[in-house]
Amino acid sequence: MLDLTLCALQLGTLPLSDSRIDYYLKLAKDNGAKIVLLGEYVLNTFFTELIKMPGSMIKEQSEQKRTALQAMAAKYELIIIAPIILVRGKDYIKAIARFSPNSVKYKLANALMPYSHWNENNFFKTAKNIDISSFSVDGFKFANIFGFEAHFDVFWREIAAKRVDCVLIPSACTLDSSLRWANMLSSQAFRYNAYILRANRLGKAKFKEGQKEVISEFYGDSMLINPNGQISQKLDEKEGMLICKISKSEIAQARRIWCFSQIARNLESYKENI
């Protein structure tokens, strides 16, 4: 297949009722999407509230959404990519779930926010083995990584080694970072001549700045970036869905023109001769 239709859903944390997500997934299916991407902290409460919740409530929240998303992936014959919190004994693990009609697989977080106002690193257990969780649909190769992980070359080297065509990035970005994220992701799409589909969450969160409490808004900006590093489609700050197509010919053309991957392989071979 030369083209494939994808969907990014731009939502805040979902309510207990499954009616809203069911509505959007049906709409995605009706528009021909094969893969649907959700942002971070959409299945679960946002981090600053999550850390105040009892473990039993976090587990119940995750289990309810996991069961619902598995059923909807089968109902609409979709692959749904959605971050979720796993509770294993006393450990909390941040993961990206890949729901398909017959199974669910997880990519566990390797890199977590370590900052005083947003310290995931102290709360979640990290995976020690790098896994970008690649998979194929209709001849296109995909990988998914968390938004924070997109800052680090170790993940992009794995993505390049596996010759991924499209990187799916769920994020929870706020605090006036819109331009910085657009620039960073556009640069990575160009460097690796791959599509990037990013789904960013909506809603508000309270953060502590010293002794003060600040309310900040998640700004959306879910987007598709093409293999030449150009933002080809983007949502604004409102709830909604982004239906987009990726093209084999556009990937092939960008890689043929720029030859970055071949040049990088040649440079790696030079190290063996040192």
TrEMBL record:
Keyword set, alphabetical order: Hydrolase
GO terms of molecular function: N-carbamoylputrescine amidase activity
Any one Gene Ontology BP term: putrescine biosynthetic process from arginine
KW Hydrolase (keyword) present: yes
SUPFAM superfamilies named in the record: Carbon-nitrogen hydrolase (SSF56317)
A Pfam family hit: CN_hydrolase
Keyword Hydrolase: yes
InterPro entries given in the database record: Aliph_Amidase/BUP, C-N_Hydrolase, C-N_Hydrolase_sf
Record-annotated CN hydrolase domain positions: 22-256
PANTHER family (alphabetical): BETA-UREIDOPROPIONASE, NITRILASE C965.09-RELATED
Protein name stated in the entry: Carbon-nitrogen hydrolase family protein
